[in-house]
Amino acid sequence: MTQSGSQRPGSMPSPARYGFSDVQRAETQLRAAGWWSDSGPVAEAERVVSALSRAPDPDLALHSVERLREAVGMTWPELSAELVTDKGLRGRLFATLGVSGAFADHLVAHPGDWRRLRTGCRQNMRDVDEYTSVLLESVGARGSGVPGTPGGPVASLQGKAATSALRAAYRGLLLEVAAADLAAVVEPGVASTTYEQVASSLSDLAVAALRAALSVAAAELSEDDSVARLAVIAMGKCGGRELNYVSDVDVVFVAESEEDVAPATRLASMMMRVAGTAFFEVDAALRPEGKAGALVRTLDGHLSYYRRWARTWEFQALLKARPVAGDGDLGMRYLEAVQPLVWTAAERQDFVSDVRSMRRRVEEHVPPEHAEREIKLGRGGLRDVEFAVQLLQMVHGRSDDSVRTSATVEALRKLGDNGYVARTDAADLADSYRFLRILEHRLQLRRLRRTHLLPGSDDANARHVLAKSVGLRSSGRKDAGAVLLTEFRRHSNRVRRLHEKLFYRPLLEAVAKVPSAALRLTTDAAVDRLSALGYTSPEGALRHIGAITAGVSRRASIQGTLLPMLLDLLAETPDPDGGLLAYRKVSEALAETPWYLRLLRDEGAVAERLAVLLGTSKLVPELLVRAPEVLRLLSDVSALAGRNPREVADSLRSAVSRHGDPERAVAAARSLRRHEMLRVACADLLGLMKPEAVFRALSSVWAAVLEAALDASVREVARRPEWAGGGLPPARIAVIGMGRLGGAELGYGSDADVMFVCEPAEHVEESMALRFATTVVEQIRRLLGKPSLDPPLEVDIELRPEGRSGALVRTLDSYLNYYQRWAKVWEAQALLRARPVAGDEDLGERFCRSIATIRYPRGGLDGANIREIRRIKARVDAERLPRGADPTTHTKLGRGGLADVEWTLQLLQLRHADEFPELRTTSTVEGLRAAMGVGVLAESDADELIAAWMLAMRARNAVMLVRGKSGDQLPKQTRELIAVAAALGYPTGVDTGEVLDDYLRVTRRARAVVERIFYEESPGVS
């Protein structure tokens, strides 16, 4: 838009509208150039003024153009003609002069260099050979061959004349790079360059400068010194072809032989002086022993040092080593010799922690007042990216040649492509790295000085100019400088977040500990390693490994990264072979789950915990393939172990209520129960949940499933025409939990002992209500009893009146009538654990209140009933123990087992609960503590019984977890018993004899208490 088009009627046009700050000076200069009139920009020069307005600093650009014109000796019309017709020249010249006062000074001192910026003068950036040729020509070097080697070109200029010529030629070439880099900021239509292209060109120019300096150095030394065989190895950013505009160039010098060391040292020293005067400082501090070490060493000298003395950071530095000048053959031999050392450095003790310590030390050296503005060394700066990438490369590059690249952005792409880093993380990190490097470039261009510090808040103009130089403009009420600060913080925060995610990933330490040979997983040595780790079938393990890592997909690559670590982790579990097989099955089942491998790779705790679970339990992998979402919880302890059972139950009931069809409703309930059972099992095995919390959680989810099945069945049955209730149920139904469900003490393989009580709805006959309720109960049993791969959902109603021959459902009055007239003492005993768990709450509570006198008999038990209970218990001990079972290790019916403890407590409750209401609890542990509290059980006896009951319950659960199926007998097979011990919390390597001794000791003491309290005390003795 022209100035006149944007001007209010009657107002005077002003250069301020075009971004000029010193308006009066700008108008004077624009008028002198013939580009401005009273009505604003002159029509013929509007393109020029508009281009100037887009320069990062229009005032600096205009002033520098005026200086240039005077230095060149052109008239304004002559210069205007060039600028109006050549869009590329406008873009390159104004952008460069609008950023860099240093380049303005160069152009004034060397007026002819402005022609380099004309369109057509340089269509593309030069390559390293072209740069070298230009620099050599500037010092009159002629001839073919490699500079600084016998027969190579030697400069004809020496001393100050040579360095002055080199400086001018180098600065002119640097101007070309900067102009191509910046042009699109001013003229968007001009071909733009990427950060990678600019960094590569700067690196190539630096290499050419080293070669030219070597040529001049050879000319200034004696013939004996100049022909010494010397290789110059670029390190750091020059080695990685990602150099800045202004930077030291890190190098290492290598001599061919001991005889060459002395002359090569003189040649290297002279080269450094020439380069330092003409171009940049050449820093050789990365050499062996640093600044205290010899400047030049032979190849053997380097290798001897690296093999014996080098520290971790020195191998990290060698990642970017690249021969760039001098004897090329010697340089390549150096590279080939040191590379194997780089790719085994990760196996050094404390390698990962050393690299992390180095990063922390670098960060600590940033002055606090600069921390928020430091682009390179601070938190979220360039070093965060580089350290993370280099650590990942050195760990994973041992077995994967594709990540052995020296450029940071390219390395990130390779790490992402091969699965070592999430693609999105790699792309985000690369994007932020480019932004920070471009920002660094623009900062250095201002005065061509080395800096990595953003302008402070007191220099708003500098921030504004810097923002425009990277293509940022004002946005809304935000000045461009404020936009820049927002962008800088966004990128630095992202860098820091990803740095901490990748740099401190536990996977790195685990993989680093695995020897390089084992990383390949297919060598003969791998069989020996697997055998040494404890795999009983290493050949079978290799087959699993081959199946998991087959192909060239990204998935296979990630598996190849994970498996060495997982093999070590599984080796520490009771069943490494079974764990690896389980991992294969889980991986195959979740092959199309996009987040599965990413989670294992990025969350080290998940991989470690999964290995423990798979190498210990058969139940967990069986559930995991059907409830994979639980895997995500392994990264969050609170989510895994801290869920409230009531909230879980409410969530289950809410989710199931959305399904009108009972089949679907129960299927949804099964799915949610599977999820919850797996969650609890994982937390249990990892030692994150207390046993009582496990029992409550399993009981709660079982009750929620019953509630869901009841609700769905009632809704469906009530809609059937035979009830003629318009969908209203003719009866209320309550589910009474019995046994361990009533006590909220279920295990993984427990049935649900229940009774169903109903009550007719208003104006409904009892017979109809009973038929309805019976139909509902039959449907519940059918739905829940369907075959499933999950642990069974068996509803056991044999504790109902009259047992198997009795009605499935009774009314409250019917139950009371039965109990008052016909109930036997064992039925009163069974009612001690009765608790409403589902259905109509009011009905359930009334049921429990109504049976109080039955289960808590007034005056306690008489002698006959006590003897009857003892007789029944003796019969159970004699007849119910399975044939061949070991009574000492049977958790349910064995000596000191669950039945012993529970019957003892129940006898105490029947005898004393009428007198002591504290005993009226359905929980075994709470009941024993209450018995101790009211004085009917000694404290030591209560402790023995609680310890035995808890151990038996935990052991029973452990058997289920280990085998994947329920069982009451401790296993006799050694490996299974070791796994049970692990599930019980015993340390790795515990002797199975110790485990059995502990179990026998605890249950033997409990049995002694049972025999004294249950069998020996006479009626009426408390």
Report on this model:
Residues 357-503, 886-1013 form the PII-uridylyltransferase/Glutamine-synthetase adenylyltransferase domain. It catalyses: [glutamine synthetase]-L-tyrosine + ATP = [glutamine synthetase]-O(4)-(5'-adenylyl)-L-tyrosine + diphosphate; [glutamine synthetase]-O(4)-(5'-adenylyl)-L-tyrosine + phosphate = [glutamine synthetase]-L-tyrosine + ADP. Its EC number is 2.7.7.89, 2.7.7.42. The protein is mainly alpha-helical. The longest helix has 28 residues, at 159-186. The strands form three sheets. Strands 3, 4, 5, 6 and 7 form a five-stranded mixed β-sheet that branches. Strands 8, 9, 10, 11 and 12 form a five-stranded mixed β-sheet that branches. Strands 1-2 form a two-stranded antiparallel sheet. Mean pLDDT is 90; it is low at 1-10 and 1018-1022. The protein is elongated and about 125 Å long. The protein is 59% helix and 5% strand. Among the domains are: 351-511, Nucleotidyltransferases  domain 2 (Four Helix Bundle (Hemerythrin (Met), subunit A)); 514-615, no CATH class; 859-1016, Nucleotidyltransferases  domain 2 (Four Helix Bundle (Hemerythrin (Met), subunit A)), CATH 1.20.120. Helix 21 (460-469) crosses helix 22 (480-503), helix 27 packs antiparallel against helix 28 and helix 43 packs parallel to helix 47 (992-1016). Helix 37 (766-784) links the parallel strand 9 (752-760) and strand 10 (795-796). 50% of the residues are buried.
